Each structure stands twice: as C-alpha cells, then as structure tokens.
Amino acid sequence: MTLKKKILVALILLFIIAQFFSPNKNQSGLYAINKFLVETKAPMEVQKILTQACFDCHSDQTTYPWYNSITPVNYWLNSHVNGGKSHLDVSKWSTYSVKRKAHKLEELIEEVGEGKMPLASYKWTHASADLTNDQIEALIHWAQREIFNYGLVKSNIINSSVED
C-alpha cells in the first residue's frame, strides 16, 4: 500500500471514529423562552420572528438540522450556539438586571438594524431567518418599547430608524 493510500485510509478511519463523539445538544425546554416572551410582551408577529431567526442560537432550545449529526459540523454549530448565547441568552433573561435587559435590547436593535443578525451563515440554511424590512422594523419597535417599559430610555435608541 502506498503512502497516499495509507494516509487516506487513516483519514477515513479517523472520520468514522469521530462520528461517535459529539457535543451536548442545547435542548433544555421551552419554559425559559416562554417566560421571556411573556415578560417582554412580544406580539405574535415578533414571537414568530424570534422563533425563526433568533432562538436557535440565543436560547436553551436549539432545533438542529439533519447535518448536525455529522462530526465536525456538529462542533461548528455548537460553537455558533455558544457564541450566540454568550451575547444574548433569552433562557437566562429572568436572571438579568433591568439595566442589562435594556442593554441587551439595545444590542438587538443595533445588530438587527445593521443587518449583522441573523448571521449570513445561518440564513443560508434557514431561509425564514432572512428578515424583511417589515420584520426588522417590527423587532426594533418591539425592542424600543421594551426599553421604554424598563424605564431606561436612551433618546438615540428610541429615535433610531431602520432605514438610513
């Protein structure tokens, strides 16, 4: 057997063995998400947007695609989920202070308004996460209202616009 064939066989065996190892799934249930939606009084339209475009990476309830069962793809997806939750985890919303909640909503307004969220790589495989201008506006208006309700109004946030 040539060196190339030995390397190829070793790589194939390594790939097969790797399939037996995967990160823990991010699926703790919907209770915390429901608490977030109730507290923030998210209208049905906003709930739908959040479910389709945000909760997979920003909560403890990820809906995994079929290709998540392939290593190393599952590790890549897991890193995206962990990264998203490090910035905003709606499953931990009730543990945030009022000031932190308002700040997280400000970040949501900025990231969604600038088109940075959802990530392009997420939209490639989740067409429903490719938000329209109306959906972006609905999210921003909802977040602005909630910042106002938390009593931490910042004029530059409340007066911001979706369109430049």
What does this protein look like?
By secondary structure, the chain is an all-alpha fold. It is built from nine helices and no strands. It has one domain. It has helices at residues 3-18, 31-39, 44-53, 55-58, 73-87, 98-113, 120-125, 133-149, 155-158. Helix 3 (44-53) crosses helix 8 (133-149) and helix 6 (98-113) packs antiparallel against helix 8. Residues 154-164 have low confidence and may be disordered.
Short description:
With 164 residues, the protein is an all-alpha fold. It has helices spanning 3-18, 31-39, 44-53, 55-58, 73-87, 98-113, 120-125, 133-149, 155-158.
Strand count, sense and barrel status of the largest sheet are: none
* Helical content class: 55-70%
* Helix run count: 9
Low-confidence stretches: 154-164
* Structural class computed from helices and strand pairing: mainly alpha
pLDDT averaged residue by residue: 86
Range of strand content: under 5%
Total count of strands: 0
Tell me the number of structural domains.
1
Question: Kindly, what is the distance between the CA atoms of the first and last residues, rounded to a whole number of angstroms?
Answer: 64 Å
Radius of gyration: 20 Å
Q: What is the N-to-C order of secondary-structure elements (H for helix, E for strand)? A: HHHHHHHHH
Q: How would the global form be characterised? A: elongated
